[in-house]
Amino acid sequence: EAATAAGLWDELATDWLLLDCELLPWSANADTLIQQFAAVGAAGRAALPAALSVVAAAAERGLDLGDLRARLSGGLADADAFTAAYRQYVHPTDGLDGVTLAPFAVLASASGTHADRDHGWHLTLADRLVAAAPQTFTATRRLVADTGSAEDVDRVTRWWLALTADGGEGMVVKPFSGPAASGSKGLHQPGLKCRGREYLRIIYGPGYAEPRRLDRLRGRNLGRKRGLALREHALGLAALEAAGSNGPLWRVHELVFAILASESEPVDPRL
Q1: Cα separation of 125 and 102, whole Å?
Q2: Interatomic CA distance for residues 261 and 198, integer angstroms
Q3: Could you list the mean pLDDT of each consecutive 10-residue stretch along the chain, which spans 271 residues?
């Protein structure tokens, strides 16, 4: 109904659409993951106060414990921050009630693949879906910037800092020319996630921001990860081409399974 109201069926001469979108809130299909987060936070908040009490009693007896109290206090603060970080992304849902889709792009339709279109085109169609069915679709905030302009980089940085300080997860930086953007060395990475400081606690752990841990994270070898991402992206574009050209279904499945096989490749677990 939303596509009908937005006029997409006629405009794209199609009876189906393949969207790049995200189910919101992401916690709606992540119950097991949320339970794991809750266990980590609860363990830290239960164990560390008890440990601090023991340390305080030992200090009163004159024992030299170095910086142990400070480290435990920091750990407790990190556990509290970790719990606050994941809780703000957990929202109650009941079936489809409370669930929406955030559309980013119209990847393909019966008239062909649309990966060669720029993101301005994709987001215009996405906004039309949101306007047609705001109870189903959620708009995505965005900025257009020139990464070669220091002024634009500063503007986007300030926007990102305000967004993440207000509880936002972060942003994804994409080449404006679209999903199939390429240069002299081949395809560009389709997107680069820039998560906020607090959200990264969910990814890397409660105390990831400690200097020694940040140093270890900075030492990661991202080359293999980037290579796998580009390979999966190329396979995805080929699958879109096969689907949009009404090719045999087995050809689409072949490419999709190749992507799944690539996803199973071992990479640095700290990524």
Answers
A1: 12
A2: 32
A3: 95 95 89 92 96 94 92 95 92 85 95 95 97 95 96 97 93 95 92 94 93 89 88 95 90 95 72 51
Helix (H, G, I), strand (E, B) or coil at 141: coil
Cβ–Cβ under 8 Å, residues 170 and 195: yes
Q: How far apart are CA 76 and CA 71, in angstroms?
A: 9
Tokens representing 89? 């992304």
- Nearest residue to 40 (alpha-carbon basis) of 72, 79, 78, 74: 79
Token pair 């207000």 in the structure block, residue: 166
CA 99 and chain centroid, separation? 17
Instruction: Report the Cα 230 to chain-centroid distance in Å.
Output: 17
Distance, in Å, from the CA atom of 149 to the CA atom of 85, rounded to the nearest integer, reads 33
Contact 106/18 with Cβ under 8 angstroms?
yes
Nearest to 166 by CA among 199, 205, 136: 199
Q: Which among 85, 92, 48 is positioned nearest to 70, based on CA atoms?
A: 48
The C-alpha atoms of residue 113 and residue 244 are separated, in whole angstroms, by 5
Task: Decide: 256 and 31 in contact? Cβ < 8 Å.
Answer: no
Rg for the chain, CA atoms, rounded: 23
**pTM confidence score:** 0.85
Query: Which H/E stretch holds residue 54?
Result: helix 31-60
